[in-house]
Amino acid sequence: MSAPPKQRQVSLRGASAKEITRDALLEKLAHERELRSYHRRASAAALFIQRVWRRYVTIKMVAEQIREDWEAMAGHYDDHMTSGWISNNFLRPFLFFVTHSLNLWKRQVKNVKCIMKCFRILLESINSSDAQKNFCLLSMGTLQERSTWLYQTRRLVSLCLFILAECDSSNREDNLGPLTALAMRIVVSLTDIKGWKNLRAEDIRDADFAVKRLIRYMTSDHSGIYRSFRKYIVRNGPQTASSSSENNLLIIASAITLSLRPFHLKRSGVKDEDIIAANDASKNYCIYLMTVPYLTQCLPSQLLPALKHEHVLQACLSILLASKDKIVDEMLTLNQSEISGLTAKSIPPLGWALANIINLAIEGSDSGASGCFVKGLNCKLYVHAVNCISELFLHWLESNQQLVNKDGDVILPTRDSFPGTADSDKCTSVILYINLLKPVHQQWNLRKLLTMAKVDITEEPHNACVRNKSLEDLGNLNLQDIIYFYYYMLRIFSSLNPVVGSLPILNVLSFTPGFLLELWETMESSIFRRTDHMSDEVKQYKDATFGRHAETICDTRQGQTLKDSGSRWASVLQKITGKSTDESNACSRDVSLIPSPIAEGGYDTWDIEDMKQGAQGISKDLSCALYLFCATYAHLLLVLDDIEFYEKQVPFTLEQQRRIAAALNTFVYSSLVHNGSSCRPLMDIAVRCLHLLYERDCRHKFCPSFLWLAPARKDWIPVAAAARAHEAAFSNLQCAEASTIPVVSSILTTVPHVYPFEERVQMFRELIKLDKVSRRVAGEVSGPGLGSVGIVVRRDHIVEDGYKQLNFLGPKLKSCINVSFISESGLPEAGLDYGGLSKEFLTDLSRAAFDPEFGLFSQTSTSDISLIPNMAARLLENGVEMIEFLGRVVGKALYEGILLEYSFSLVFVQKLLGRYSFLDELSTLDSELYRNLMYVKHFDGDVAELSLDFTVTEDICGKRIVTDLKPGGRNIPVTNENKLQYVHAMADFKLNRQILPFSNAFYRGLIDLISPSWLSLFNANEFNQLLSGGKNDFDVDDLRSNTKYSGGYSENSRTVKLFWEVVKGFKPTERCMLLKFVTSCSRAPLLGFKHLQPAFTIHKVACDIPLWASLGGQDVDRLPSSSTCYNRLKLPTYKRSSTLRNKLLYAISSNTGFELS
């Protein structure tokens, strides 16, 4: 049965089933409505475009017709020229057709001719003595005439300023100079009632009112005299008296006159509207003119005094301080694209405003060494304004550093190069800009500011570092204002040129007498407010110790008096030379300026309470003062010699030096504890100054040892944890953010000296222990076994054999070494190497290689007889490679904890630690050269008489080698002006340049085994102590208390008691020989014999002798022997001390061990 047919659906509304849905219908209607709206807008736009075009065409046609009629009328203006005719019939049509074709006016020569003709006729009218013809007298006519005059003059001023902005004197095709000069004459005449003819006394008030309204319009944003003048200066570049044409000079003089009109109104104005208008003009003056690049060089020098007038400059500075936010915002929005030249574009308008203010505040274009500020300058206002701009400019520099220093090469500019010229491409923008700030780093500038600050110093609070000022009450100029001034300048110079940019300012600050001392005294009152820095105990020590020190120096000097006692420099030479080099140096080293650590209260004395919060806990005033002080003093410390620092005590006494060191030490440590990474510039410079003081103290003590330990005395941490943190931080220091480095790691990498030396030695050993563990985990064998390195060494060729068999290993030298000796007779020596022979090998190799007779190293001329690379080593075969190998030997000794018998010159160690050496360190290397350089430095006469030049002569293996200290040095004589350069250049050569190839080679070998991060824990003296143990002797009682006994001996055995009596009676050298005989190393463990592994052991060797022999006075005949692998002394049972002494001396002098068994 089939399905019934499907019935058709019928809508009750009468529609079919295929009708559109409601949503689709609404979307369709919306689309149609939008389409109709679009067509309506298109039609309206088309109509508007048509109207605009028809209007343009109509106006153009009308303007053209009016222009033709105007030209015809202007040709016969003499017949009917009156002031009314000028206004109604002459200016009205002219302004119509000119202002409606300004966009094309330069392309139409006829328009330029019309403008020039109009301006000439108008000038003739203004200068006319006939009242009927003078156009300016309309300003005092009827109300309608006044209104028309003001409207037309405003249009004329706008036209003239437009011409000024478009003028380009460098473009010969335009040649708009004459027109622009004529335009400027028009505006000057309209705004100066003194030049108006036939002006009656009763009309002066009305004329002055009209001119003031015109000037307000001219200096407003709408008209923009300052905008136009800025464009003209930027387009036309520098103008000098010789290069400027008459028109250019007239244009600039007129523009300056017009720009300064509002400042004269402010002086004479009493109405509020005049003052407001003058302030607005001053604001625009600052924004548009003061930001012109090289403003003082772009303007003729004879016109600059107008801009430097006290009323102009003071008004500018005042408005700058009052509205700095608004002015700065507008400065930063200025269009820099109109400026040509690399220099101008890379420096923001803020920077140019700063440079221009500084140059406008001084007399003349180049003040030189004896300059001065402009007459009547309010220095307080000047300093505050410069500080205001400098702070904002510094912030911009730090945010846009990559834009400023994008050029890698620094090329000094020449006098002929100027930004925007072809030659300027050879110059770096930074150098050119810094040269503009030259007045800041001239000594007269600082001296005059300090003098003005001292005038009212009695009215200022003593604690200037914690004061806050407001713009409403600037107060008197004080030292804190000067601190801000040079703080910002120093930071700006450093940001612009990080390498040498800050040097000129630092030279001025460092060598201005009294400034650094005054700066410290100002800070001192804030830093030590709550700290009685000098306890009674320390005071008593200071008086006693330094009294003795003074007496010692006095006695020493009396024995060294020169014959010419009347000469001022005789005493200086007396201090330098002394009786002999060794005696002088021995005296200076033996006189201790600092006692041994005293009670716990001594730590509290040097932990400065007000510095415990670090950089975050001090005020902005103190922060800026501290930055300036650290930067200046760090710079001065580089050139202070020991006579100035310790004897003359300039600029600070030694007591002040200790206070400075304590304050900086606490500040840096506390800042690191509190994560002072946000104050990075201050931290960096404070750390640098602290390091310089600490290194000088390490070389010649002036601070108690507990001063450096004071901040961290309560925060000492487990050695293992500190070692792990230090290693992790140092390995990630280059790539990690400062905020991510742990506090302990920051302290250890920055100021490790706050932890005691013994703890840092333990950290060093822990780091090596961790390295050995990591090597073991990585599969490298570090102990005896299959992975060890076996070598055979001839005792009489120990250096050569060691070099051939070990030098190629590199970092693999960390593995264990098994040494077999061949005696001098050519026979293999008895014994197996379980560590003792390898220690003996390293010590004997180092003794032979570092012996000056071997030729690789030589001894310094100072009394400590330390080692320095021999300059003749480069002439030896494989000389530099051998020095690199010795670096590995020293690294191996440090890695295994083996002490060597030699110590290096502090200068050489400084290079290994990556540190630069300065003049004061030369005395530790070559005392004779140091004395001679001090003689030159303090020479009272004409240095040219000494016939010196900038060269150094070396005598190497009979060859005289002359080296220039600077390019062309042999042609540069040493004079009084450059003698300091000579002294420091010579010191730099001896301390850094000369030994650099050898120190680099030694360093390459050293770091194969010892990580640079491990070395950074120590200073130069501590490195030597880590290497050699310091003294050539040891504490017998310490050895006795840490000695073990075996084979039947005990502490109370008769032979043992005799042994200790004999050892105490040995000379130091004999005791060292004994220690080497037993342990294969002549130096005691750095931290005492409790750290000797294995422990020192005395083993009993029983020796029976017949009774008759004993009664007859005979003793044991057998010699002592040793097992250096186990640090064991095999001691026979001697009965008499004389026998024990003789047998022991014979054994330790025979250079054998196993053979004696």
DSSP E strands, number: 10
Trace the largest sheet across and list its strands: 7-8-10-9
Radius of gyration: 44 Å
Instruction: Let me know the average pLDDT.
Output: 80
Explain what this protein looks like in three dimensions.
- With 1157 residues, the protein is mainly alpha-helical.
- It is built from 49 helices and ten strands.
- The chain has a four-stranded mixed beta sheet, with helices on one face. Strands 1-2 form a two-stranded parallel ribbon. Strands 3-4 form a two-stranded antiparallel sheet.
- Helix 5 runs parallel beside helix 8.
- The longest helix has 53 residues.
Brief overview, please?
By secondary structure, the protein is mainly alpha-helical.
What's the structural blueprint in terms of helices and strands?
Elements: H1 22-74, H2 83-99, H3 109-126, H4 143-166, H5 177-190, H6 204-218, H7 225-236, H8 246-259, H9 261-268, H10 272-289, H11 295-298, H12 304-307, H13 310-322, H14 324-332, H15 342-346, H16 349-360, H17 379-399, H18 401-404, H19 429-436, H20 443-455, H21 479-496, H22 503-511, H23 515-527, H24 536-558, H25 568-577, H26 581-590, H27 601-606, H28 620-637, H29 642-647, H30 654-673, H31 680-699, H32 705-709, H33 719-731, H34 743-750, H35 757-777, E1 789-794, H36 798-806, E2 817-822, H37 836-849, E3 857-859, E4 867-869, H38 879-896, H39 906-912, H40 927-937, E5 951-956, E6 959-964, H41 979-993, H42 996-1006, H43 1012-1015, H44 1020-1028, H45 1036-1041, E7 1044-1046, H46 1054-1065, H47 1068-1079, E8 1097-1101, H48 1107-1111, E9 1121-1123, E10 1128-1132, H49 1137-1149
Parallel strand pairs: 1-2, 7-8, 8-10
Antiparallel strand pairs: 3-4, 5-6, 9-10
Helix pairs in contact: 1-2, 2-3, 2-4, 3-5, 4-5, 4-6, 4-7, 5-8, 7-8, 7-10, 9-10, 10-13, 10-14, 13-17, 16-17, 17-21, 21-28, 22-28, 23-28, 25-40, 28-31, 30-31, 33-34, 33-35, 37-38, 38-42, 39-42, 39-44, 40-41, 46-49, 47-49
